């Protein structure tokens, strides 16, 4: 077995042509055909067959193709990891984040990370949790930090941090003098909410469903596309809201807002590190992930 046979086979399958594969590999077509024949002799079965228009992959060929990709990805990852032992971590860190981690948690973490690894260039894309999941699948970013479990089998999600959801109200609100309210109180009030697709909104919807309450029962006065906009609307007296404590702790400390908790309503929610399933992380991202786990444990 020669690893170059596997690489050549991957190109043949993806290009659906010996000629195009040869061109991409800068080889002659006879050389590509010879490698394909050697691989088929090794497995003892045909891996491709010709139709009138192009090459088709046999069932055995599909299996060999999938394993070949994994072998070549593992080989590349091992090479990158070995190189990283002798060199300072460098390269691009392409990261996505939903609103809460992106605006309130990651800036300080990234600042510290770049002090430790100045040769890493970071780019942070912020969107709602669903958008970040799609961005990862489309290859726009390598990984993300989000506030919702997307339950997508193509994504791998690991809990990396705990957040707390709290009710906020302006200081002059009728509920402001109370430390706790009931679900019934919350449902009866005018609510300022995040838009559909937001991790915070998804968590709230699921928690309400657990209590037998549909989102339609909420008196949503206003939907807004960012947590900061929601917080500003509440401070202006447009209603109350349920938001991340990370987003409002400073405003609560200075008295711009008051914080309430809902009885029998678990406030904790998970913040996830998310990446494509079965994908090897690049050295900068692997280093950042390890850094984040340590950073969150100490801050």
From TrEMBL:
<dbReference type="GO" id="GO:0003700">
    <property type="term" value="F:DNA-binding transcription factor activity"/>
</dbReference>
<dbReference type="GO" id="GO:0000976">
    <property type="term" value="F:transcription cis-regulatory region binding"/>
</dbReference>
<dbReference type="Pfam" id="PF00126">
    <property type="entry name" value="HTH_1"/>
</dbReference>
<feature type="domain" description="HTH lysR-type">
    <location>
        <begin position="1"/>
        <end position="58"/>
    </location>
</feature>
<comment type="similarity">
    <text>Belongs to the LysR transcriptional regulatory family.</text>
</comment>
<dbReference type="InterPro" id="IPR036390">
    <property type="entry name" value="WH_DNA-bd_sf"/>
</dbReference>
<protein>
    <submittedName>
        <fullName>Transcriptional regulator LysR family</fullName>
    </submittedName>
</protein>
<dbReference type="InterPro" id="IPR005119">
    <property type="entry name" value="LysR_subst-bd"/>
</dbReference>
<keyword id="KW-0804">Transcription</keyword>
<dbReference type="Pfam" id="PF03466">
    <property type="entry name" value="LysR_substrate"/>
</dbReference>
<dbReference type="InterPro" id="IPR000847">
    <property type="entry name" value="LysR_HTH_N"/>
</dbReference>
<keyword id="KW-0805">Transcription regulation</keyword>
<keyword id="KW-0238">DNA-binding</keyword>
<dbReference type="InterPro" id="IPR036388">
    <property type="entry name" value="WH-like_DNA-bd_sf"/>
</dbReference>
<dbReference type="InterPro" id="IPR047788">
    <property type="entry name" value="LysR-like_Sec_metab"/>
</dbReference>
